[in-house]
Amino acid sequence: MLEYAFMQNALLVSVLISLMCPMIGMFLVLRRYSMIGDTLAHASLAGVAVGLLAKVNPIISAFAVTSVFAVLIEVLRQRFRRYAELILVIILSLSVGIAITIISSGMVHTNVEAFLFGSILTVTPDDVLAVAVLCVISLAAVYFLYPQLVMLAFDEDGTKIAGVKTRLINYIFALLVAAMVAVSIRVVGILVISSLIALPVAAALQLGKGFKVTMLAAMVLSFIAIITGLVTSYWLGAAPGGVTALVSVALLLLIIIYKEIRAVL
Asked: What residue ranges are annotated as transmembrane (predicted)?
C-alpha cells in the first residue's frame, strides 16, 4: 500500500492533521465554539472554488478565504455578543452562496467532490508542502500563545481584566482555525472536518484528566481515527472522510462504555 506515492502523500498529511485538529479543537470545544469550526469548514468550499477558478493551490486559497471569514466572524462576534448563532448563519450563507455561484456557473471545470468527502488519490506533493507549512506556523503560534489561549478558553472576561490583549489573540486564533480547516480538506473532506475538531476532544474529555493530558489524548485518538480511516478507505475504495468520522464516533462510544462499565464495577 505504501509503495504508492499518493498513499505516502496522504499518510504524511494525515499525520499532520491528526496533530493539528485536536490541538486547535481543544480550545474550540472548551470555548463552546465547535460550530464555528463547522461553519468555517463549509466556508472553505468558497476558498476551494476561488482557488480552482484562479488556478492556484486550493489549500492555499481555502486558507486565504477561510481566514477572511474567520476574522469576519470575530468582528461580528463583538457586535452581536448575544446572537452568536446568527453570525454563523450569516457567514455560512455568504460563503456557500459564493461557492455554489462559482461552481454552478460553469467557470470551474474540476470536480469538487474530492474536497467535499476527502480523497487519498488527489493529495499532491505541493499539498503536503502547503499543509506542512501551515501546521508548523500553527504549532508555533499555539506554543508561544499557550498561556493566553488557556486563559481565554476558561474565562475570556477575566483574561481581559488581567491585561491580556484578548481581541488580538482572538484574531490570531481565528486564523489558526482557518489554517486547521484548510489543511484538512484534501484527506478528510469539507463535510466531516467537524468530526476531527470535536470528537477526539469529546472522547479525551471523558477521561477526566488535566488540560495537557487531555490534549495529548485527543491527539492520540485523532491519529488512530485518521490512520484507521485512511487504511480502511483504501481497501474499501470509499472516501476517507466518512470512514474517519465513523471511527471517531466509535472511539467516543467505546470510551463512554468503558467508563460506564468501570463505574458499575
From this structure: 6-29, 59-76, 83-108, 128-147, 168-185, 215-236, 242-258
First to last CA, the chain: 43
Nearest to 14 by CA among 237, 235, 223, 249: 223
Q: For residue 181, what are the domain limits?
A: 5-191
Residue with cell 490570531: 172
This prediction's pTM = 0.82
The CATH number of the domain where 32 resides is what? 1.10.3470.10
CA pair distance 244, 133, nearest whole angstrom:
24
pLDDT, tens digit, 9 for 90 and up, residues 16-54: 888 888 888 888 888 877 778 778 888 888 888 888 888
Give the separation between CA 232 and CA 183, rounded to whole angstroms.
Answer: 21
Number of C-alpha atoms within 13 angstroms, CB side, residue 10?
Answer: 28
Instruction: Return the closest-CA partner of residue 184 out of 202, 200, 197.
Output: 197
